[in-house]
Structures are given as C-alpha cells and as structure tokens.
Amino acid sequence: MTAPLNSKPAKPLPMTVISGYLGAGKTTLVNAILSGDHNLRVAVLVNDFGKIAVDETLIRSRSNDVIALANGCMCCQIGGDLYDAIDRILRMRERFDHLLIETSGVADPAKVAQIAVAEPDLELSQTVVLVDALNFAGILADPRLNDTLLRQLRSADLILLTKINAATATKIADIQVMLAELGLSTPVAILPKDDHQAWRILNERRTAARHPTKAGPLKVHRLPFESWSWRGVEQVDLDGLMAFAKDPALNIYRLKGRLRLTDGRTILLQKVGSEITVESATEAFGNSELVAIGVKSDFSPARATGLWTQIIQRLNMQHQ
Q: Which one, of 40, 80, 45, 73, lies nearest residue 59 by Cα?
C-alpha cells in the first residue's frame, strides 16, 4: 500500500493468529477478547467449518458474512481467499488497531503467519495455539492426527491450555511434560474459563528469533479429514441426535451444530472426541445446522448422510 504524498506512513497493523486443534476453544477465546474492556478496534477473520459464532450481546448489525460489533470491532467469515479478506481489512486500515485471525481447527497457522511476514502493512504480534487438556494426549498418540497438532504447536509463540476445569492437575502436568519432550521452548499458560483478561494477549509480542525474517514457500499440507454437513427446516428429536453423535460406526471426532428440537427448545451441540455438551441457544435462528468432522480412513460422509436421513425420515413418519 502506498501512503499519500506529504503524509506520514501508517504503522503496520498488528496481527495475532489464534489456532488450535478441533474443539480446543478458539471461538470462546475470540469472544472473550472481543468482550474485554480494552478500547481496541479489532478486526476479526474467522476461517472454520461452521458459521461465525460471536456472542449475540456484542452484535450491532449483520450483513452477509460480516458482523459489526457494538465495541467498534468487526468480524467476518473467510468465505474464499484469505488474502482477499486481509486486503479488505487493509483498505480500511484507519478503522482498526489490531487484526485477529481465528484459523480452522485443522489449519497450519504458520502458513497464515507468513502472510504478515510478507505483507509490509502487517506486523505479526504472535501466534497463540490452544491445547485441549482433555484430548491432547489421545490426539498426539494418533499417527493419523498428530501431524496437524505438531504443526500447530511448532508455530506457536504462546501455548494456552484449555478445559482445565475438567482436567486433573496430574493430566495438566503430564501435558507440560509431553510438550517439553517434544523439544518445545514455547511459553505455556493456563487459560481459565471465562477469562475476562484474555484480551491482554493482543498486547504481547512474539520473540523475533523464533521466526524467519522472510516468508518461505507455502507448502501443501495434506489434511487427513473429511467433513459432512446438514441444514434443514426440520425440528430434530434429541434422542435421535444423541444416537447419531455417539454412533461408534460413524467415527465422528468433532460435531457441532445449532438445532431446533421437537420439544420446542433450541440448542447448541458440541462434541470433541467422546466429550459431548448440549446447552440452550441464546439467539433465535430458523434452520437447524449440523457439521461433523472425522479422519478420512474412518469417517464416511456418505454413511453419515445415510444415518441422518433415516433419523429425519423416522421423525417425519411419527408426525404424519
């Protein structure tokens, strides 16, 4: 970008990358940052399998995949090219103090961070990687999955342990030992649930020695995952939904959705590994939506479609 004549060039826009494996809590952290008392105008780019998930109390208005927030921040979903999305933000450079990018759970954050290295109008603050304390050991031990996890960890300037309320002190200590055994010297901290000071990570800066000064080639990272999704007007039976989520033949690792139930409730469903949570939805919505992710060798989108179709058909027959 070229500065106008007789004007002082704008400082590069600081950029923080939030990454972590499927279900590690990235969106929860982004919501905590946006709701913090920081007086920063933050532009947020979200690149994930699902829809933008921003706390409804923050939202001022919506326009397609862009959400204007009451605190002067903006959130938009990366529907296509990440470079195009960043270019849109840089064209509005004067409106923002910080760019926050939430990667998908299977992304290589180093590839995203390299954009800031190559773009003179951006400055990489740091890459923050979240680690799910409940499922970390299982993912690390699975040779089909651990390549993605290791890429994320090795790109991190800061590692935050999440879901510590449900993890034992011994499990947390074991994770720290495993991280050390991987040869990582990255600082590790615990992210408490409902951390109102989470926004402070925006003020932290990376250690320059940990990063190259030039952007390298963006190598292809072949992902071992398949995804399946469904969207419909039907109300869903909770028992059928839970049977789908727990069916061992489907081998679903990550499942998330917002659904209207036959009993009149609206819920948010989350599954990570064997952990399933259901909570009441705080926002109104029309269609129900469900997204499932699994390892290619085990998870078949066609099988998921077949089973889900049976569940919906049985439900329809009961209401005829």
A: 73
